[in-house]
Design a protein that fits this description.
By secondary structure, the chain is α+β, with helices and mostly antiparallel strands. The protein has eleven helices and nine strands. The longest helix is centred in the N-terminal third of the chain and has 21 residues, at 19-39.
Amino acid sequence: MARRRRSRKYLKLTNVLSDTEYESVLDQANEYLQSYLRRWQVEPDGRQTELMEWLMELVCLYQKEHQQHPRTDLPEFARFHGAPYDRLLAHVDLSTNEIDSGISLAYYSRPDIQKELARHAEERQILLHYNGPYLWGFRTQNDIVPLAFWILHRTGRWPSFHASVARYDELGQSRHDVIFEIDHETEDWRVCFNLTRPVIRLLRREGIPFRIKFSGNASAHIIIPAEVLPGERNGYHAGLYSFVRAHLKQSESLDMTFQEDPHHLLRLPYALNEFTGLASIPIPEEAFDSFSPAQARPDRVEITPNWWPIPPEVCREGQEALKEVVG
């Protein structure tokens, strides 16, 4: 995907990589990846994509087997299935939450995950790591795996991709999604989800369309896409936050940084959480009450079809509802 030209005025405001800098990062990322493969005595030899697909398939197969037979040894399992690269996976320990480059490689190698990441990155700035450089989306899906490894080597955390809440047109003009997150100081996701239910009920009652995704840690992200906001779209944010806060018993748990900073970042749907290794997966509205973080494990992630788009007629109805609520 070719990157669009942006206004020079806007580019001065952010640390956006130039084409040359982007290529430099990719070169370095591919060096990391080649080094990783050599470490396990695997010569890519033009078969890097094939190797990644095989690795993803083998890890998924093993994890299914491991659930039924916890004592299964991975190298033995690989050899049993005729895998020629068992040394590559000899270090994978699925019983811990430690950062594992093999699992990261397998997850980000999935074509369906790459497609979703690239699609949700369109028109957004992508942050490679905290205080690091930005991209204008991904130029191709093939960039995702090496960039993930570049992040892993730079941060020592699970590789994650964060994107701007704002989406930008070719002139640098922005429109912003509205984000609600109950950021309670707890590691118990049930607490956060219970505190989030009133927000869902409120928006549903008022007829305001929204989307939900898991943060990959404990909280849920409630997203009202910019397409739902009427007229001067960005002007509705403050009114919406005031409306929601007024209806929450524990309003102090509502993360206000999304209102205070219009250029706030949010983990991309399907990106791994850098601290937990769980994926930030979409949650269908009807599945919110039955959700479990186990669904966000890299080996269990399934794509939710048609999660993001909101039909035009539903957007129009939502706009009318917002006018009634915000005024």
